[in-house]
Amino acid sequence: MPHLTQIKVRGYHLDIYQHVNNARYLEFLEEARWAYLEDCGDVDYFTSQRLAWVIVNININYRNAATNGQTLQIATQFSKIGGKSAVIHQVVTVAGTDTVVADADITFVCLDQRSGKAVAIEGELLARLSTHLTD
Question: Which GO molecular function, any one, fits this protein according to its record (predicted)?
Fold first, then answer.
């Protein structure tokens, strides 16, 4: 089951056309990923292991405009774990509706903060991330 985060659209999120600016969606998606990590306890785990998530690719599709006052719901879930990277899929909808505003696939690596290099996703790290995969 995906993790759900809600964000209310405010006036400062809007562009000249009075809908959410495309760059703001990246912030909304990041906020939802942080909320997900905090809620599942992974922020503490990654901090203790001196590992950082580094985004290496984002593919985002803008589907419908979001406007001032709407509440957006962001569903976040892991979709793939590879040897050195993993992918999180996120879907932004208008809360309480089936209207998809945007969807994205975010690829990240786990960076060892001591060496500055990406680590292999294996052993304890693989086991930890695998608990987040959904069918």
Answer: hydrolase activity
* Cα angle value 102/53/122 (rounded, 5°): 115
CATH no., domain 3-130? 3.10.129.10
pLDDT band at 84; cut points 50, 70, 90: very high
Q: Token pair 């203790």 is at which residue? A: 48
For residue 101, count other CB atoms closer than 10 A to its CB: 24
Task: Cite the DSSP H helix spans in 1-135.
Answer: 22-40, 42-48, 123-130
- Count the Cβ atoms, other than its own, within 10 Å of residue 110: 20
Pick from 30, 103, 31, 28: nearest CA to 64:
103
Rounded to two decimals, the pTM is: 0.93
Strand partners of residue 124? none
Q: What is the pLDDT of residues 101-116, one digit of tens each?
A: 999 999 999 999 999 9
Catalytic residues, by residue number, are: 15
Q: Where are the beta strands (DSSP E) in the chain?
A: 3-8, 51-62, 71-81, 85-94, 100-112, 117-118
How far is residue 55's CA from residue 78's CA, in Å, rounded to a whole number?
14
DSSP letter, residue 116: T
